[in-house]
User: What shape does this take?
Amino acid sequence: MMKKILRKVGKVIFPPLAYTGMRIVWYTTRKTFHEMTVIGAEQHVCVCWHGELFMSPQAYRKIHPKQPASAIISSHFDGELIAKTLELLHIRPLRGSSRKGAKQVLLRAFKSIKSGEEVLITPDGPKGPRHHMSDGAIGIALKSKLPIFVMNFKAKHYWKLSSWDAFVIPKPFTKVDFYMQSISLEGMTFDEAKAYLSFKMLEHTIK
Assistant: This one.
């Protein structure tokens, strides 16, 4: 009973607190944006590692401030907290994952893409292993024939949590470099696309 009460309270309190912390760090850090390729206004499937969720969705909104977007978020309690936080960045949650509710969430993702939204995915979510490439982002990109918008960042000074994803929180006033690139999987087999995306996402991330 107490666990249920704490979870209900957490759903109300955590998202605005997390959002406030994210914005404080965002506005106090010294940011440099490196567009490794031209991103432009073309619709993408967007990806970042789970451990980079503190900054990457904010970087996405910096690059695409008005683009309608949704994000595939797990149906677990932690996912609920993430979903409500992302809603404050005007990113609509699609609840489910490759492990639970996969078919339904993929159908919703394609529906979102068809409506003009960009879909954001953490390929190693919701439970890892860290930096392990799941099939979801590849399948969505190949089937929709959209390029992938890869988002990574590196911070000079940061906290790294002892969670499975080694969640990274840059320290206020530090230097943060964002690396953005648009990649095409056109003409690749599924396995080739998976290996290529994994390689590109690991180029500019905190190991």
